[in-house]
Amino acid sequence: MTSALDRRTDYRITFVVLLLGVASFSLLQSMVNPVLPTIARELETDQATATWVLTAYLLSASVFTPIIGRVGDKVGKEKMLVFALSALAVGSLVAALAPSIGVLIAARAVQGIGGGVLPLTFGIIRDEFPREKVAGAVGVSGALLAVGGGIGLVLAGPLVDALSYHWLFWLPMIITVLAAVAAAVLVPESPERTPGRINVGSALLLSAWLVALLLGVSQGHSWGWGSVEVVALFVAAAVLLPVWVLAEARSADPLVDMKMMRIPTVWTVNLVALLFGMGMYSMFAFLPAFLQVPEAAGYGFGASVTESGLLLLPQTVATFLAGLLSGRLAGRYGSKPLLFVGAALTALGTLGLVLAHDQVWQVVVETTILGFAFGLAFAAMSNLVVEAVPQSQTGVASGMNANIRTVGGAIGSAVLATVVTSGARPDGIPVEAGYTHGFAVLVGTATLAAIVALFVPVVRARTHVVPGPQAEAEAELAAAR
């Protein structure tokens, strides 16, 4: 007789647990951004040091997202999901109690390990859900990352005003602990495993070039783009990246299979992810700042942290609705058209910000369009990658896609920071042209993303033979396993 513990948990219960994990991680991506000055003041440090609260999280998440996704493919996604959520909870606890900026920065690095939640979520959905439910579930989970980013901007101000900045970490910790316990008890272990050992050398090389690239990009504006430190970091990244690719290509047990990365659908969607990440994460960083510019500057609305978050609430709602609709739309039209529409709407909404930003209603309408676009594109990217790779590669493939979005976001934010502040006034407030030129750059990246989306090949059904390079790459992957 089969015991209750042997029965598979209903996929809908599993889905709720997974969404809790994704929500807690995505909240921590954005809630800290608007209140960095408050944190710097409370912990008696300068703004440059306080920015490491963001940088440490970015570097850690970029390193651990693909690694944990790959380890999950090999040793079990449920085990690694509990591990990632536990790290997120521990990091949040330490951050909430941090007595100094150094401890807070270290805690944020621990939180970054939780980046593995997203690829593990996609892998578990593919393993456990009925085939017809996979696209919708992946779409909602992917869009929730953008939704959480928006909710974080909305909640940051009220939480700090009503309680303290410590609750920016207490709240995600509570959610994460609940998700970790529920995952350990309710989420079944994945039946799909990839044989072979964990390639530690590849993981170290991946970490090295990612840290070099992202540290150079994130600190270039403050250290100086021509400084010895930044140039050395970029040179190191340029050397280590091809070394990593070559090592992975020759490895019998690669961390990231280069044959998988060469699948046409995968590399084209990853290129879209890079371009799209440049726009979306830059908007999360700079729209609140734009809304908070004092009206005396001749533009902006003088909004408080709380008010700027509320003005962006329609954007978050639109992202959530797009995520809910994405599964049905993908089933009817396919994920590729959704990706194109999402990128095109991003270009349209950003162009609106360039041309018309004098009235509050204009900015609200434009950011709402952006929110809907983010939801569609995130869902479509996730689905296209998941559908394009063998089931045993789901974690690492979606992890690399998420990672490439993060790299794009770091590059976009650095470029936008340089453009926006290039003509700052004596009081340090950027001139209006800085913002309009910065937004114009993002119109270009979103337009390029839409163009690339037109050339993304589509995997119709993995149970059928699809002729061409896509099928050849998949056959090579199958043979390698």
From TrEMBL:
Pfam families the UniProt entry points to: MFS_1
Keyword set includes Transport: yes
SUPFAM superfamilies linked: MFS general substrate transporter
Cellular component GO terms, alphabetical: plasma membrane
Keywords, in A-Z order: Cell membrane, Membrane, Transmembrane, Transmembrane helix, Transport
Domain Major facilitator superfamily (MFS) profile: 14-464
Spans traversing the lipid bilayer: 12-32, 52-69, 81-99, 105-125, 134-155, 167-186, 198-217, 223-246, 267-291, 311-331, 338-357, 369-390, 402-423, 435-456
Topology of this chain in the membrane: Multi-pass membrane protein
InterPro entries in alphabetical order: MFS, MFS_dom, MFS_trans_sf
Cellular localization per UniProt: Cell membrane
Gene Ontology molecular function: any one: transmembrane transporter activity
Protein name: Drug resistance transporter, EmrB/QacA subfamily
Source organism of this protein record: Nocardioides lianchengensis
